């Protein structure tokens, strides 16, 4: 598990390129912000089948193979975006990137779920996200530096880290176990789409992803609207990552260590709401720092918890597919978030954008605790309430 986490951390070093995709299209090809948002939405739509295929293939053909294929495909697509000389070519590679982008997520998450027992899953997923946050500190600085030079180099950096991650996974992780009949119907009894509780988690996860993607995608544009340098969003991403890394010891303090999962959801989403509302009132780079720290503390509390819930719900031999179905929340949000965010920004301004996102977080602070209690009642009555707080994409 440690090698998988380390490989994903290396991959994270170049993972902020997509945050600047809309800025690249606006600056390079002169398209409107709304049009750039539609292209990013096409990427999000393509990630939906990518995630589902990744979950099914990982349960059938093997997790290591699926991870390597997905990362290699991402590298090819990122290099294509960097080398594209027209909007049509860029869009083609953006869609291709979406089709391979989520292949490696379900097997990565399933491998972690298989490596630890249910009581330790929150901690394990938190360790993954803490490692990604640590790498994110470097990623934000890379984005700020390369973005000032040429935004295309962000995609080159991302491609390189994908290839390095794929190499580490291929050379170091245990091989996939042999399967007598890899395309048999052994796992066809797994029916995640019929699990009503998983569907409820999918709905709430989609709303969270809609909010989170505004930070990743729309924040650079929001800063440009206020006369700031879009590449400086990388500094805020680094601030967020630093907050999550330095905040890890806080999770060992008794008030947080014994915090029940429902209370953790309520607290985390409330902090997210406060931080994003702060973005609505800021007009300088320095003023963006405090809200970034606040919402990042909320993210710290939330990280790992939803994935642990999904892993607890999954039946034997179905972890990858359950993770895949839940994970399409990011694909669905990826379709609507760029369109909604750019339209809100273009028509209503940055203040309305961030206040709307803050309101969505408050809604999640009310609904997610109920879902956590329901999962706890269905699986293990005490495991979720006693799980230590830990650190998502949540």
TrEMBL record:
SUPFAM superfamilies: MFS general substrate transporter. It is found in: Cell membrane. Pfam families: MFS_1. The keyword Nucleotide-binding does not apply. InterPro entries: MFS, MFS_dom, MFS_trans_sf, MFS_Transporters, Sugar_transporter_CS. Its main location: membrane. The chain crosses the membrane at residues 12-30, 36-54, 66-81, 87-104, 125-145, 151-169, 196-221, 233-251, 263-281, 293-310, 322-341, 353-372. Residues 1-376 form the Major facilitator superfamily (MFS) profile domain. Keywords: Cell membrane, Membrane, Transmembrane, Transmembrane helix, Transport. It is a multi-pass membrane protein. The keyword Transport applies. This is MFS transporter. It comes from Streptomyces siamensis. The lineage of its organism: Bacteria, Bacillati, Actinomycetota, Actinomycetes, Kitasatosporales.
